[in-house]
Amino acid sequence: MPVTTAQPTLTNENDASGDDDLFEDEYEDDNNGSTTSTGPTAGSTSVPAGSGSLQCYRLASDFPSQWISLQTLIDTSRPDMIGSSKDGPDEADAVIAGVLSVADAAGLDPRIAFAMMMQESSGKVRPIIGDSGKSYGLFQAQVSGIPLCNHFAKNECPEDTITTQIEFGIFGHAGTASPPVAPGIAYWMEAEDGNVGRALRGYNTGRIPDRNDLTHAGRATLSYVSDVANRLTGALLGAKHKATCS
Asked: What is the pTM for the complete model shown?
């Protein structure tokens, strides 16, 4: 759950196509269906889900470069996203499409956003309001007034409500002088020149207490960066939660 401190740079563009093949040309290898990517924002090589063991990625230099494919991340997460009596399959599909669309608008590898979302809320559109009532929605953003799905019947939460929750996690909330600003992961990725580990630390903590040891978390979650990293490598799948550093 992020702490609200820094001023984000927001983008109002949003590709609302919700096309499940949105990233096919950019991320999918036509020969084997694996996911690859370029640049500092993503892992360089795809690996099978469950092929690695849980690791504590304590240092910024330790953040893994081999990630599972986007499709594998979705396929191993979707059953848990609808494995509750509260959420329906149409809502899960709207979440998946929304993450792809908003990540595309932000120029963000969707695997980063998807892994964060699974860590924050297990991809459920009716998550518990966290941090003593301060964190809301799929990305547990600390922004009051985020539209929630709690008052809608199962499988009937509007797509725009779901997409707005995702936008708060990826783009953040500019706010005014009050309430405090809530930066999204896109802000932190830009601020940290694409360093995923440091960007995750900034999102969760609201600052980066130690640019080398990313388990320094202040009031936030010590193992957050490592937990998301283990989702990206496929060592931690679906709604399972385990602190990977102590």
From this structure: 0.79
